[in-house]
Amino acid sequence: MKKLPILLFFLICYQFSYSQLSDAARDSINRLNEEGLVHMKQQLGITIPNRPGPSGDPSAPNAANSDESKINTYTLPDPLVLKNGNSVKTSEAWWEKRRPEIVEDFESEIYGRLPENIPNVAWEVVSVKDTTNGSYPVKEKTLKGIVDNSSYPNISVEIELLVVTPANSEKPVPLVLEFGFIRWPFGNIPEPETPPIFRANEPGWKEQVISRNYGYAILVPSSVQADNGAGLRQGIIGLVNKGEHRKPDDWGALRAWAWGASRAIDYFETDEDVDAGRLAIEGLSRYGKAALVAMAFEPRFSLGFIGSSGAGGAKILRRNFGEQVENLASAYAYHWFCGNFIKYGSTLTKEDLPVDAHELVALCAPRPVFISSGSPQVEGQWIDAKGMFLAGAHAGSVYELLGKEDLGTTEFPILGKALTDGDIAWRQHAGGHTTGPNWSTWLAWACRYWGDCKYP
Ligand code: GCU
Questions:
Q1: Does a structural domain hold residue 455?
Q2: Does a structural domain hold residue 1?
């Protein structure tokens, strides 16, 4: 119980910017979210209302299921069976036939396609500062990625990026890119390290990364694309569509944020402090979903750290536990996905999805991916930890086909046990809705691949 305030703290931080808005601004966003949903449903010819999703409040009468004994039976699509029914037995068949089928399904039905005419991004270093993190000297650069808006000057997009590398490294360093915040939502000040009480007595993640002689960067997703349906005619999605509505298979915010991460890689490839051959992507919650999408679609990320990504991320969508497809297809969250996804919360059901989350993990193969969650007692059950574990487990056949190691078990392990021997890794830490207490485990695992890490 005494950990409840920790969860509340993080929830408050997430919701803070939104709650700072005036009632009128909030009403306007909600109205535009709703209007965008209605417009997309018209395009799709859907005339029935969306089914309501369950509540995230465990005491509500319509609370989401959190009882393992009430899990529905479901059949997952087999990542190694082609649509024509033939089995995939070779890596060539995976790369040439099956993987493209899975990519097509995710693009057309869930996350949307990248448009062909996305304008260029010009990176500009805004400031360079010598400073410290803990006892470590670091070089801190702030950048903006200015998107060419000559095709539609009404919308401008400037991607915010912070890059921090050890000051005394003699060579370029591996780097973890986080989807996150550069400035704290409580005003225009740098985001502080997570306070010690929230991080299991470990140093903050940034200090841990730097102490290994690695670097970190933070990309601000909302500088690429707003985190609401109201913003879909703005941001990079709006710019490409010249301020108009999306088509049903156009990209949603998760894909747009992941696109932003790819543009950050373009910059890293030009930064002599960074080893662009050793890059990881990390994020939590909705940014954990984005991190998995980025990892799946961007081969230049060599490692992933997918924090409490839940539904729309690593959680098996067919499981009736925690957040459901209906919640994601609602006015609150549909903007994360392409318009076609709304069908699965209205005219179709989750069983109709051509793919499920294990296949998103499989798209990362053979690159190592670490799936992270908090404890049910502290974090709650909305994110469905076991559902995320199972996606990792069911992606294993693809990793094995490609000569890599799977999770090593299909049994959900006890809290705190790290499954890090394989190329799909899992750990449920004892804290709340954060990647915080898993950083030391993740770094030890990453070091196995990246090598070259010094121990403080
Ligand atoms: C909500 C939402 C989740 C999301 C989370 C977050 O709880 O239902 O899908 O992951 O917000 O990003 O904070």
A1: no
A2: no
Looking at residue 45, which CATH number applies to its domain? 3.40.50.1820
Handedness of CA 41, 44, 47, 51 (dihedral sign): negative
Residue 168 has pLDDT above 50, yes or no: yes
Neighbours of 405 (CB within 10 A): 15
Find the 163 Cα to ligand 1 centroid distance in Å. 26
User: How many structural domains does the chain have?
Assistant: 1
Instruction: Classify residue 322: in a domain, yes or no.
Output: yes
Which of 284, 323, 335, 433 to mutate for ligand 1's pocket (most ligand atoms within 8 Å of CB)?
323
Show the domain range for 366. Answer: 6-450
Nearest CA to ligand 1 atom 12: 286
pLDDT digits (tens, 9 = 90+) for 198-245: 656 778 999 999 999 999 999 999 999 999 999 999 999 999 999 999
Does the predicted TM-score (pTM) go above 0.85?
Answer: yes
Tens-place pLDDT, residues 318-331:
999 999 999 999 99
Nearest to 282 by CA among 438, 67, 449: 438
Residue whose CA is at the smallest distance from ligand 1 atom 2: 286
117: tokens are 């005419």
